[in-house]
Each structure stands twice: as C-alpha cells, then as structure tokens.
Amino acid sequence: MAPSSERPSVWLALSVLAGLPLALWAYKCLMLVLFQRKIIYMGYAPIGARDETLADVPKDQLKGIVCEEVNIAHGRSSSLSGIVVRSTAGSNPKAAVIYFQGNAGNPLHRLPVFQTLLSSPSPSRVPLDIVSVSPRSYWKSTPRRPTQAGILSDYRHVLDHTLTRYPSIPIILYGHSLGGAIAVCLTSQLSNSHIGNTPCYSDPRYQQIKGLILENPFTSVPDMVQALYPERWLPYRYLAPLVFDKWDAYSAMVQATNRQPGTPETILDRLRPESMFLVSEKDEIVPPEMSLRLAAAASNPAAISDTPRSKIIEGALHENAWRTRTWRIEMTRYINEILRTW
C-alpha cells in the first residue's frame, strides 16, 4: 500500500495539541491521588533520614544537652523510636514537652531547636525533658504505612509512655506544622474521664497535660492543597476533596470553642483557652493567615479571658522561628506560666 500524501487535518493537529497536556494533567492528578500519602508523610526525606544515628550528629548540636534514645513498644511487632533531650545541668525536670514533628525528617534534625529551648538564659530557664518520638514510617520506627488513624494511635502510645515516665510533673504538647494539626486532632479525642457514647480515649492521667503550643499549624490538608495550588485554571486544587487523611484541625478547634456548657469536656476543650500560637511572618509553606485563622477559631469572642495567645515571629520562615529572640522569650514565658499554676 502506497503511503498517503494527505496532510493531517487541522482538527487532528488541534486534538493532539490539546489532548496531550490534558492527558498529562490527568495522569499527574491520578498519581497525586494514588500516592498522596507519600507526599504528606515524607519520612524518607531528606535522603538518609531513616538511617541516621546519634553518632552522625555534629558535636556542636549536642553541646549543653544530653540525648537519650528511647524505644516504645506498640503492639506485638511494632515499635516507635525517638529521643529524650535534657540539659547537661542535670537537675530533675519540672516539666516534660512532647514534640509533634512536621511531615519530614527525624527527631535528630530538631536537636538545634531543643538545644535552643534548653539553653534559655537564667533565671528564666526551666529544667525540661523534651520527648520527641517518630511515628510509623519515620526514622527507626516500624515502617508501617502511615495513616491518620495510625499516627494518632502512635502518639497516644507516646503520651502514655511520657505519663508513665513523668507521673508528677506537667506535660506540654508542642506541635510544628503537620505536628500542630496532629496535636489538635489528638487532644480532641482525649478526655480525663469517660464520655458516654462519645468516641473518646479517657485516662485520669490526662489531667497532667497543661499546655499546647502550636507553631505554624495549618487548618487542614485540603486547605493546604488549595494554598499550594492557588491557580484556578490548574486541576490540582480541585483534588482537595479526595484527600484521605484530612487532619482537620480547624473543625476540631471550632467544635472545642463552641462546646455547650454541661457537655463532656475533651483535653482540647480544656487546653484551648490557654494554648499558644507561634506564627512565622514569612512562612513560605503554611500561609501565615491560615495559622492565624486556626488561632481565631480557638478564640471565644464572647470572653476575652477565653482567648489563646498568638504571636507573629517577625522575619521568620517556616523552619527557622526558633532562631529568633522572640521565639525563645515566648516559649520560656509560656512554660514558666504553666509551672506557676501547677
């Protein structure tokens, strides 16, 4: 058969030009939906994060602190790995801080943050133990598939371990970025006592939880999808309803703020008025207005005393607020205020 000498029609050319980008967009959208947990939970980043050890930590990041590795059993075949950090001063801790990490890295990457907090100038310095444990699929913890339900279960075990280890001092929850949303969602499921038919985990020891610090938290993962893809002509922002793990901190906070008198109280209900929000002014990942929106949801406009503290860290980016003097002052002041009421 002789080859055709006819040129492709204009419609065929237009179909190829329009269809190829549409096909690529459709393929990328499908991959984003199917592998979304690989994007949300980046325990593999940076490269080698799962294989690092204390021996790999630069000596200057361990100056003035003692770092102890801990391993928490979780079920028959699972475990959670983390660290407990304290000052070399050696005095008994007056409070314990549980750190909820962001979506990447491991506890060793946060050592400069902990070092800064533990080295606050006297006399404002408080003897602290900082407990930072990686959830599943992060660092040396069991490499199980991360899900919202699974990570909440992991942090309940971390909380139980901390309460057992420190039975007589206040516990402060400190979440950064995704960790902030995790802390909010977790405390919305906890109660000092049993709450009827409400799906809640109760333990009288939860009364020890006295503080909640949220640094650059987001309102929900769907909101973050739309923030990262603001262009309405791109299809990615419209994938928000397909998110598996929503981490809807905003709804949890609104529910806590609007709790009716006489209804059962969760830990979030109790902590909300006395929580602290730290917001980086130039956050390049979580829009500052999103963190402030969550802070506004935690405020009760009918009662000035029922309003958490919010502080904008001038000039700070998403990951470096801890380098500022404002961060050190606010963190130390907040912890000292909790100790004064303990």
Q: Any overview of this molecule?
A:
With 342 residues, the chain is α/β, with parallel strands linked by helices. The chain has helices spanning 10-34, 36-40, 111-118, 148-165, 178-187, 221-228, 249-257, 267-271, 288-297, 325-340, and strands at 65-74, 78-87, 95-100, 128-133, 171-176, 190-191, 201-202, 209-215, 276-280, 309-313. The protein is globular. It contains 10 helices and 10 strands. The mean pLDDT is 93. The chain has an 8-stranded mixed sheet, sandwiched between helices. A two-stranded parallel sheet has the order 6-7. The chain starts with 9 loop residues before the first helix and ends with a helix.
Cα gyration radius (Å): 23 Å
Strands across the major sheet, in which order?
A: 1-2-4-3-5-8-9-10
CATH class categorisation: Alpha Beta
Mean pLDDT: 93
Helix share, percent: 25-40%
The low-pLDDT segments are: none
InterPro entries: AB_hydrolase_1, AB_hydrolase_fold
Domain AB hydrolase-1: 130-298
Pfam families: Abhydrolase_6
Protein name: Alpha/beta-hydrolase
